[in-house]
């Protein structure tokens, strides 16, 4: 059965509020299949990840972008991909996705994937930086191990370094074609991200840890580092502290919840475990973005309804569940207000995942809205407004992103096909200022609406397992990077 089209949604330049960089080298079949899912292996012998919801969606939607018929066999698809080359494939997929803005988590293996600037250039859109909190804290801990600062300086160093990241650089986004000049390698970030779910789970101390408690936790951590432990933050007190630091700066705080790779204990990633912390964070006014959420998307929808500062997405699930994405999105919207759901792809490594995330999202939301129109639950005008809200407006409001100067190439082509008299409305870029509460902290960086960022290189390889940990030594190690999703 064909899916009814909502014209505004078809042509809307999306805002991908959470994604990663992509691999620009050629991939063999093993590496390609490993990058398709959150698994750390290419599948059991005799089976393939192409035989999955994701695999069938990839063959349907991505094959035509490479000049192949829909549902082309995997071998034909991979051969054509290799023939075109990684750069051409990336450009085709990204420009076909119709994404105007990419908020890129730059903390995962930044030496191996594209930066937000490169991603934006390939897409003809704009890139923005999201700072992963754990690598920043791990670098401060290494400075303590190597004797550059004392343990007692850890809290203030973390606050100062994050504030500096938020205030550094120029005033523009990392820009692709049509988005204005890039602002260099450093620019204000649009948010921060915690991967506490991977490290310790989400049952974190709710109240703001005092500096004395933080220093005691750091002293214990540094002792383990000096004894040769891996350079990997995994302490509930310190994860809680980092979230509070981001919130005190008024930055949107992204928190991984739900589905992830094999490092994750799924039962500890239920967003309901954050309830007390969400209640405690509410006076700061900082938005909290629950990422991914699946299979806890209904629980996340509840939290988004009852807490004014809580938002959610189902991005990672969208492309992994394929044709079931409409069901997942509808379930998330059972309780979540339409102004609280954001679009994301959580795309990583493969350019195909940006396209699939966008196509399946448009299809799922179109089916949801069209069913409501058919049943008389809302009007076509309401559906048009909600499409803009969920696809772009909510993210622009939360992150303070301006409208793009030009639409991405794919959305301009879609707009040209609209019937006469059909318009594509977009939500205004407006964000209410956050209020602050709690002990005095460094002054938050000024973030006028539309101010965005370039990113440091944000890269990760298809295989998501961490390398063998090296003991900390007196010699200053290389800057660490977190390998969790």
Automatic annotation (TrEMBL):
This protein's record includes keyword Hydrolase: yes
Protein name, per record: Amidohydrolase
PANTHER family given in the database record: AMIDOHYDROLASE 2 FAMILY PROTEIN, NODULIN 6
Domain of life per record: Bacteria
Biased composition (Low complexity): 407-440
Keywords associated with the record: Hydrolase
Pfam families in alphabetical order: Amidohydro_2
């Amino acid at each position: 059965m064909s899916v009814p089209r909502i014209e505004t949604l078809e042509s809307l330049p999306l805002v991908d509020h959470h994604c990663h960089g992509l691999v620009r080298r050629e991939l063999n079949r093993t590496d390609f299949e490993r990058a398709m899912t959150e698994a750390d292996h290419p599948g059991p012998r005799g089976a393939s990840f192409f035989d999955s919801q994701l695999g069938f969606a990839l063959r349907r939607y991505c094959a035509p972008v490479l000049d192949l018929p829909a549902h082309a066999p995997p071998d034909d698809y991979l051969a054509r991909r290799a023939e075109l080359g990684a750069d051409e494939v990336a450009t085709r997929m990204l420009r076909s996705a119709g994404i105007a803005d990419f908020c890129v988590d730059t903390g995962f293996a930044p030496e191996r994937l594209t930066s937000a600037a490169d991603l934006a250039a390939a897409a003809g859109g704009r890139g923005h930086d999201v700072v992963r909190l754990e690598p920043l804290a791990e670098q401060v801990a290494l400075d303590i191990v190597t004797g550059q600062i004392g343990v007692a300086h850890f809290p203030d160093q973390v606050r100062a370094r994050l504030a500096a990241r938020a205030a550094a650089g120029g005033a523009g986004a990392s820009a692709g074609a049509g988005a204005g000049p890039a602002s260099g390698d450093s620019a204000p970030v649009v948010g921060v991200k915690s991967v506490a779910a991977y490290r310790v789970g989400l049952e974190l101390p709710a109240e703001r840890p005092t500096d004395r408690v933080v220093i005691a936790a750091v002293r214990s951590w540094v002792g383990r580092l000096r004894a040769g432990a891996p350079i990997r933050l995994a302490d509930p007190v310190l994860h809680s502290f980092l979230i509070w630091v981001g919130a005190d700066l008024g930055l949107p705080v992204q928190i991984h919840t739900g589905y992830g790779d094999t490092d994750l204990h799924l039962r500890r990633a239920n967003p309901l475990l954050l309830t007390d912390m969400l209640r405690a964070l509410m006076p700061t006014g900082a938005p909290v973005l629950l990422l991914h959420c699946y299979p806890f998307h209904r629980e996340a929808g509840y939290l988004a309804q009852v807490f004014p500062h809580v938002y959610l997405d189902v991005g990672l699930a969208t492309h992994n569940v394929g044709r079931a994405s409409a069901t997942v999105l509808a379930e998330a919207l059972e309780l979540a207000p339409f102004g609280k759901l954001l679009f994301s792809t959580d795309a990583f490594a493969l350019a195909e995942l940006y396209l699939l995330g966008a196509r399946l999202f448009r299809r799922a939301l179109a089916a949801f809205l069209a069913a409501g129109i058919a049943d008389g639950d809302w009007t076509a005008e309401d559906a048009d407004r909600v499409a803009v809200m969920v696809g772009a407006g909510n993210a622009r409001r939360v992150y303070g992103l301006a409208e793009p100067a030009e639409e991405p190439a794919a959305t301009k082509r879609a707009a040209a096909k609209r019937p006469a008299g059909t318009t594509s409305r977009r939500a205004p870029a407006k964000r209410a200022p956050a209020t602050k509460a709690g002990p005095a902290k460094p002054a938050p960086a000024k973030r006028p609406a539309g101010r965005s960022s370039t990113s440091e290189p944000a890269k990760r390889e298809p295989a998501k397992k961490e390398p063998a940990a090296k003991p900390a030594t007196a010699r200053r190690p290389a800057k660490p990077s977190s390998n969790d999703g």
